[in-house]
Amino acid sequence: MPSQTEIDRRYENIRSRMATAGLDALIICGNQYAGFEGAVFYTSGFEIVHRYVYVLLPLAGEPTLVFPREARWIGDKAKPWVKDQVWPEVPGRWIRDRAEQSRWKRVGVYGMNFIMAVRDYRELAQASMELVPFDFEFDMARAVKSEEELIEVRDAMDIIVEGFWALVDAYEPGKTEAEIMAPAVERFFACGAGPHMMNIVLSGTHGQAEAHFKVPGKRAVAADDLLLYSLEITGAGGYWVEFSRPLLRGKPSPTTQKMAEAYPEALEAARKLMRPGELASSVHRIVAETFARHGFSLGHLSGHSIGTTMIEHPAIGAKSDVPLAENMIFSLHPQVVDQDGTVCLYTQDTYRVGKAEGECLADVPWRFFTGQETKQSVAP
User: Fold this and answer.
1) Model pTM above 0.90
2) What is the helix (H) or strand (E) element at residue 75, kind and residue range?
3) Are strands 106-110 and 130-133 parallel, antiparallel or unpaired?
4) For 229-268, what is each residue's pLDDT tens digit?
5) What pLDDT digit, counting tens, does each position of 131-145 carry?
6) In what order do the strands lie in the sheet with 329-332?
7) Which residues lie across from 352 on neighbouring strands?
8) Ordered domains of the chain (ranges, CATH)
9) H-type alpha helices, 206-294
10) If phi over 0 gives left and psi between -120 and 50 gives alpha, with beta otherwise, what is residue 35?
11) Which terminus, N or C, of the chain has the lesser number of Cβ atoms within 10 Å?
């Protein structure tokens, strides 16, 4: 549980942006979908086990946890620091009534497009108040991590790297994609990640991977199959981190090898730009330009801010002209695709914006892993 000083810091940062936007209150949405539960945890300490929850944060006064009535017995309601808790039949109707009684004119919503339940939006849309999308402003209020938060981020990073080495140890041709992944997931759960994880894979034959993610399944792996496990978890403190390295016992295809030759240059160039005042778009641009010189493009954004929500603003993308600040945390995950969009190579690392350059939080070098390495045998 964060200290009272940390809780006060969070509310102060959020309310400062609320005041600037002229909001009377903010509805913070969260649900069970992986990565969408974190804003509620960040502002209340409640861990969503099932269904969905809202935190109603007025510009002044105490916040309220608003649960749907059917979720009354789901989750530990004694754990959160927000003690004002209600369980209406339709949460949106209760919030609408509260807003009308309080004569609120402008109410922000974090998660209106992707998280808020439709039945609740319908109720809120009938009110006289203005609903204001507030995702970017909310995320910017929490983008710079405190020293307390950085401890949790580093703890999560230790867990994900430990799981990666369990995966490397389990990697053996003849096993299925799921069997290779299983020891990593076991470590993640045992170390406190709980259900907060999303572990997927890009894979393919003949030393190259197909350019679409899938759930690791029962497909048996051959020696020349390229496996790109995307590991995404939180620690017990609820902070997401992401990590990936390629696994291949055989030889990479010529296309994969050419992609691989560009990766160290692109990652190092991006890391050096992760400094205060640099634009997030500049980090994306240098990654994209590096791969373009090698004849490849990116499948999507280079990365994004990450915290108690899996994907937060600002993005590391071409249009993200947001200045970086020290102690922002980013997942950098360039997916490089060929001209046909069928073959790809992928990596993930989690970085801290430093005083002069970025800090990669994992001490694992970028290379193809054969399953015969150990943590001690591979120097950063």
Assistant:
1) yes
2) none
3) parallel
4) 999 999 999 999 999 999 999 999 999 999 999 999 999 9
5) 999 999 999 999 999
6) 312-316, 303-305, 329-332, 349-352, 359-360
7) 329, 359
8) 4-141 (3.40.350.10), 147-360 (3.90.230.10)
9) 254-273, 280-293
10) left
11) C
